[in-house]
Every structure is written in structure tokens, then in C-alpha cells.
Amino acid sequence: MSPVSPQDPWVQVAEVVRLIRRGEAQTRPELADATRLGRNVITQRIQAAQDLGLVQPSGEQRSRGGRAAEVWEFVGDKGRILTAMVGTAGFRVALTDLDHRVLEDRHVAWELTGDPLETCERIAAEMDAVLALHHLGSPAWGIGIGLSTPVNYVTGRSVRPVTAGPPGLDWSAGMDVRGWFTRRMQAPVWVEALPNIAALGAAAAPDAPADLVFVRMDRGVGSGIVSDGRLHRGADWIAGEITHILVHPDSDRICLCGRVGCLDAFASRWALEAEAHRALDQGRSPFLARRPAPVALEDVVAGAEAGDPTCAELVLRAAEAMGRALAGIVTWFNPRRVVIGGNTLADSALFQGTVSRTLNAQTLAASVDRLQLEHGTPDRAEDVIGASAMVTEMLLSPEYLAEWAPGGFPIDVEVLMAQKHDFLA
Length: 425
Description:
Layout lengths: L8 H13 L6 H8 L3 H13 L3 E8 L6 E6 L5 E7 L3 E8 L4 E8 L6 H18 L8 E6 L3 E2 L4 E2 L18 H9 L3 E5 H10 L8 E6 L3 E7 L2 E3 L31 H4 L1 H13 L4 H4 L7 H9 L3 H25 L3 E5 L2 H4 L1 H14 L2 H4 L3 E4 L5 H15 L2 H7 L8 H6 L1 H4 L2
Parallel strand pairs: 3-6, 6-9, 10-13, 13-14
Antiparallel strand pairs: 1-2, 3-4, 4-5, 7-8, 10-11, 11-12
Helix pairs in contact: 1-3, 1-16, 2-3, 4-5, 6-15, 8-11, 10-11, 11-13
């Protein structure tokens, strides 16, 4: 997107909205001080933001020693954001407002081994159903989509995965996911890799530090990196591939990448389930022998919690591998917070405790003294919040708001499609 002038009135409106939304300045005097704009100009910009429905008087007043000034607040209920997370065993569609409050959240089982366009159409149909349920007669303000494959954020196209998955699981390299959903849903669309989405969700927390890592555990293990408040994607869109960090060079466990000893070979769902089936075949786990086939990751975690030695060993080895991988990341990147979430293993107290002990043993004290090691929400709320935050931040950015605000609504699909490689970036 082309840069815009700070003197553009709509750019100034965007800055006023940002300051009010984040609570950095909420009265006319505070906004004038923060923006260096005159009082009359501030009054005009607040009025423009109010006409768009983005701000309103809070009903409170605040004084800095003189006459009390009216306090303004952001109106998160003004717009609706659709999100879709496409995983390995189905997808999730949610509807939020501009404050990332979840209004609808649906999980849909779906076999991701067919035509990707069929999957796109099924997701779009679910989005239509959500909009109809909430009686929205107009399109959503924007759509955020998370894929289980690397994504070129600038073009909104999928990127070839680092390693191969099961047949049909991965999106076709170069598929124009953004363009397809923009045309189908008649709304601006942004697409991102799931671990990055989760990292944005963690970064949206009120107490989030500027530097954090989110480790998202699913079929594989991925991570998203937020540095100085901004998502770090890397030169080839594959930053955060923690899954292929070597944690046991002398191991005989083969990773999907073809090497041995990768984190993925110890802590991923596929690896743990493969080891569990091997233990079951060898008669080494009475707990797993009582579970209905096929044995899943959830069974392994339940067995570990029930005291089954084989299941406990699998969980402990996964946690030790995760701690080793994180030790290198924490030493090199020095994040203030690391969040681990995504599946049942990440929620396990045994796993969490062992990761913490291993990380502390493998890292210099200076790197972990102030480190916050936290665990994601069981319902993967970070995914939905992250996708909503990604879209909302773009919609309210100075460059984007300056384009849509004169029309009063952030929708002009013909313009979006004509400029999609630049206008949506």
C-alpha cells in the first residue's frame, strides 16, 4: 500500500481512533497533546470518528486541574470480523466485534484431503450461515484466515510447506486464498499461518510484552515470533519453524523432514501417536491396551496422568525435547514471554513442569530470570483473537482507513481486487 501524508485528515482521524482505542489519550486536551494538533482540529477529527461510529462519549469526565473534559471511548461493537482457522482435521469459523469479543464460534469436522477449492467453499458456506444467524444484512468488515501451511502475507497465497504431510493435507503452493475469499465473501481478506495467528492473539492480551513467542502444538509443532510488538515472518515466510530444531542428534527417531532428532519427532501429535501404537503392539502399556482403537494423543496424556509408565515416558521425552528447543530460542531471542498451547499435551501439568525444568537447566540464568513461561487457553482462544486482531489493526490503520472512511464503510471489492497485491498488504 502506498504511504499516506500525515496531513491527510483521515490519517489524523485514524491516529485519534488509535489513541482512544488504546487508552493512551481520551479527552480533547490529551489528544491535542499527543498529536500536536490544535483543539479545533481535534474536535473535527473526533467528530469524523464519531460519524463513522468508531468512538462515542463514555459519559465520564476527567480533569487535569482545570475544567473537566469529556472522555471518549472506542466502539468495538460497530463492525463484525469473520475468522476461519483451517486445521488438519477440520476448520473453525468465528464472528467477533472490533474489540475481539467472540460472538459465535463453530468447529466443523472436515476431511482436508480433497480439492482445496471445495474446502474454501465449505468454509464460505459456514461463514454465510454465521452472518445469517446474526442477521447481518451486509458483508463483514473483514475476514482473517489461518492456514496450517506457510503463507506469503503480502500476496495472501499459500507457500510450499517445509516438509510433506499426508496426501492432500497441504494447500497447493501459490494458491490465491485471499483472492478467492475476497471474491466469494465480498469483503477484504487477510491470510496468515496458524502459529503466527496464535502469536498475534497472545500479543493482543492487555498485559502482553513487546517480545514474545507462541508455540502452537497440533499435528506438528510451530511457533510465531513477535518482536518489538510486530510479527516476524522471515525472508521466506517460514520464521518460527521450531519443529525442526535438532534436540537429540544421537536419536534414531526420523522426522518428516528426513533428518533424525528434530523436535517434531518427539513432541508432535503424529510422533507421539506412532510411539504409542508401537508400545501398544509390544504390550508395554496396560493403560493404552484398555483404550478403544485407534490410540490418540489424548489417550497418551490421560495414561501419563493415570501413572502409566510408558505414557509418562512419552510425555516426559516430549517435554524435555521442547525444553531443549526453547532453550536455544530464549538464549538467542530473549523474549519476555513464551506461551505454549494448542492441544492436550500442552495442557498437561506433567508436560508443563518438565518443560520449565529443562528450560531452566539448559539456559543461562540471565535469560530466564524474568522470562514468563505461560500456557495457552484450552479452547485455543488465541487463534480467534489473533485473526480478529490482524484484521482490525489493518482496517483501522492510517493507510487503510484513509481509503475506506470517505465512503463510510470498509468495502469496495472492485478496488480491493484491482490493487490486492498492494492495497491489502
